[in-house]
Specification:
By secondary structure, the protein is of the alpha+beta class. The protein is built from 16 helices and 14 strands. The two termini are about 45 Å apart.
């Protein structure tokens, strides 16, 4: 096994240098060097989340159940649960290991961290878990299904809300996100050892995997040798899951979720679907950030301080799937003030924002915001920094941030460009409204439909993106 350097760059914000390697068998390895840290963070990322269960012709919940077994059940090296647990314990001479796993719609992750003195121990431990024997899957599948069923039962309410939101936003285009990642109580009993083995064999394709390492220095020969041994476990070169870029659209729609959490309030989330471009759009990124700050500032002056109708307003930046996310703004108010607040929000978008930007204070505020981005402090240590690079590589997205390109945008940006962005994104595009309250849907919608906000946006034609 050997490696070839295919990319390298320095991230000035994070004060680190990253290298991307391609191994002989096609596996991609990301090495991020941040000299100040004393830890090592390792992630093995598979394109093998619940989205691909249909492609693999296995029951829903298979990916999540496989993650449970590989990460947490005895393997070839650690033949009992006690031995597996002991393998992560530290001593007075060697650090302990933190190892975990998770599943998303797109990816399956096995990851761990430790002090740099435990680096080789960590990589070996991860390799032992990845080298999982089929006979052990057959041995532990029945019991682990019971564990997953218990997990589903304890977190059902929270997951139901997320699934309903996904369905409301992109359920028609991506029905895969309307099914819980862990499956349902009806799905889990259908999963067999054969399903798990099939799915494992499919995702163990070196072109389907990225290994990421964040470390305080360049990887030693001993650590690279261990990574090569991990790479040798991925032997499937025939089947690889593919991304699916389906069109979605912004269209006006309203969903009410009855929830006693908000007591006497109505929670309102105004969302717009966006597709992240393959290459980073620095200008669009800056404009979104400016809008978030601007909306909060004008809302605070005009609605909170001016009228006392709301306590807070904030922004939405919610990742959904592939390159699609939901962006917008949110707030909470009393039901009797809902109509007034929706009209005030409409007034903010159509009038108050422009008035603010044209004022002497607003002009000074705009420059201050650009200054804040230009002289922003460096990032602090993030354990998932290298992992995020790996995710972008798997998704085919731009994984390198250029501070110079962002600074060039900031130095040239005009107020008129921000105004145009707001008009196109928030006045010429129809939003989706997610409402949560303890009240009956009919009562809330009766108030909403009388507002200028509703009457205006309900007439906006859908836009396919």
């Amino acid at each position: 096994m050997d490696r070839r350097l295919i990319d390298t760059w320095t991230d000035e914000r994070y004060e680190s240098t990253s290298n991307v390697f391609k191994l002989t068998n096609g596996l991609t390895v990301v090495e991020s060097v941040k000299p100040e840290i004393k830890t090592i963070d390792v992630s093995i990322i598979f394109r093998g989340g619940s989205f691909f269960e249909k492609q693999a012709k296995v029951p829903n919940g298979t990916a999540h159940l496989l993650e449970h077994i590989i990460a947490g059940k005895p393997n070839k090296r650690h033949k009992t649960l006690e031995a597996l647990d002991r393998s992560t314990l530290g001593t007075l001479k060697a650090p302990s290991l933190v190892i975990n796993a998770r599943t998303s719609f797109i990816n399956l992750y096995l990851y761990g961290s430790t002090h740099q003195k435990g680096s080789l121990k960590l990589l070996r431990n991860l390799r032992y878990r990845l080298d999982y024997p089929h006979e052990n899957i057959e041995k532990y599948v029945t019991k682990e299904k019971e564990v997953v069923l218990s997990e589903i039962a304890t977190s059902k309410e929270k997951k139901d809300v997320g699934i309903k939101l996904n369905k409301f936003l992109i359920g028609n285009e991506y029905p895969e996100v309307t099914i819980p990642i862990g499956g349902t109580s009806k799905d889990i009993p259908k999963i067999t050892a054969a399903h798990l083995i099939r799915f494992k064999d499919m995702i163990y394709n070196p072109k389907n995997v990225v290994v990421t390492v964040q470390y305080g220095r360049r990887l030693s020969k001993g650590l690279w040798d261990e990574i090569y041994k991990i790479a040798e476990l991925f032997t499937n070169n025939k089947i690889s899951f593919k991304s699916e870029n389906r069109p979605v659209k912004n269209e006006f729609s309203v969903y009410h979720f009855k929830d006693d959490l908000y007591r006497n309030d109505v929670y309102v989330a105004v969302s717009y679907l966006n597709k992240r471009p393959v290459k980073i759009d620095y200008k669009k990124s800056v404009l979104w950030s400016l809008f978030y700050s601007l909306f909060q500032e004008v809302e605070r002056i005009f609605i909170r301080e001016g009228k006392g109708y709301i306590y807070w307003g904030s922004y939405i930046n919610h990742y959904l799937i592939w390159n699609i996310n939901s962006k917008g703004y949110k707030f909470s108010c009393r039901l009797e003030k809902l109509g007034d607040v929706m009209d005030d929000v409409f007034n903010v978008l159509t009038c108050k924002i422009n008035e603010f930007l044209d004022s002497s204070y607003g002009k000074r505020w705009f420059i201050d915001q650009l200054s804040w981005f230009l002289f922003k402090d460096n990032w602090k240590y993030e354990s998932e920094y290298a992992e995020n690079i790996g995710i972008n590589i798997l998704n085919g997205s731009d994984y390198k941030f250029s501070r110079d390109k962002k600074e060039a945008v900031l130095k040239k940006l005009e107020v008129s460009e921000l105004k145009l962005f707001i008009k196109d994104q928030f006045l010429n595009t129809a939003p989706r409204l997610w409402l949560s309250s303890p009240f009956e849907k009919s009562r809330v919608l009766r108030v909403l439909k009388k507002t200028r906000f509703y009457k205006y946006f309900s007439k906006i034609k859908p836009k396919v993106i």
